[in-house]
Amino acid sequence: MSATASMPRERVFRLVPATTAPKAATKTATTAPVETSPVAPLKTSCSSCHLREICLPCGLAGNDIERLDGLKFARRRIAAGQAIYHEGEAFHFIYAVRMGTFKSSLVLADGRDQVSGFHMAGELMGLDGVAHGKHASTAVALEDAEVCAIPYSHLNELAATSSNLQHIVSRLMSREIVREHSLMLLLGSMNAEERLAAFLLNLSQRLKARGYSPTEFHLRMSRQEIGSYLGMKLETVSRTFSAFQQQGLLEVDKRHIRIVDVPAMTRAFELRVH
After folding, report:
1. Residue of 87, 75, 130, 82 whose CA lies nearest to 102
2. Which residues contact 178 (CB under 8 A, 6 or more apart)?
3. Cα(83)–Cα(131) distance, rounded to whole angstroms?
4. Can you give the pTM of this predicted structure?
5. CATH level 3 topology of 43-184
6. How far apart are CA 99 and CA 118, in angstroms?
């Protein structure tokens, strides 16, 4: 990753919520209803979406985009702390995040919640339900958010008429596999500093792709949720943030992060991994 100049501050603070962070969601969060009626109030078209280059229609054009537009995906607003689906629920939709941030988690055998991913605008959720027809995780909004609900059966029918769309569906599955492999790498071969550095650098890259500052941002997730995702104890996460501050790599103000030296953090991370 190369160093990138910070975006104008007003753009950065579009990401910053109210001073009171939303409470951490639990597995008892209510599920946001998704209407399937053709007269649902909010509809969206892929061709006019500002996220089309990083979301479902990425790489499509012409007739294929028109076919996707014909599905008229329903848009739903999700309140902070609300679940879009729960582990074990029947699978009908995949969800494209239009705005906001979600976490996905599953319940371990001992009853603990394990965070399995964080999802932001332009990313898809719900593909874990394809294999068995039931969701394998729970997805909860970490802030007020909005999603497009994409009926998976309709998407499959549409894909059958176009090799390009078939490729898109296959790519979505592959992307989920790559994400799982990345998590396995984090948990299986990296120490605490490497895990947190990889997490922050990945977040930086994703924000940059969406036009936000790659060096200054507000974390939507808590330290505890980061620790769950990275396989680290809460105190280890806090201690590692402090170590990065002492090394001059980060400036940290609660959840507000500024990466002081992206190249240095990247070099340090890469030298330890390779």
Report:
1. 82
2. none
3. 21
4. 0.76
5. Jelly Rolls (2.60.120)
6. 13
Query: Alpha-carbon distance 201 to 192, whole Å?
Result: 14
Mean per-residue pLDDT pooled into runs of 10, the chain (274 residues): 40 36 47 45 65 67 71 86 96 93 94 92 90 94 94 84 78 75 74 91 90 93 95 95 94 94 80 46
User: What DSSP character marks residue 171?
Assistant: H
DSSP for 45-102? -GGG-TTTTTSTTTT--THHHHHHHHH-EEEEEE-TT-EEE-TTSBP-EEEEEEES-E
In the chain, domain spans = 9-15+191-273, 43-184
Give kind and range of the element (H or E) at residue 256. Answer: strand 256-259
Q: Which stretches of 100-220 are assigned E, i.e. beta strand?
A: 102-107, 113-119, 124-125, 138-141, 145-151, 216-218
Domain 9-15+191-273 sits in CATH at 1.10.10.10
CB 214 within 8 A of CB 262: yes
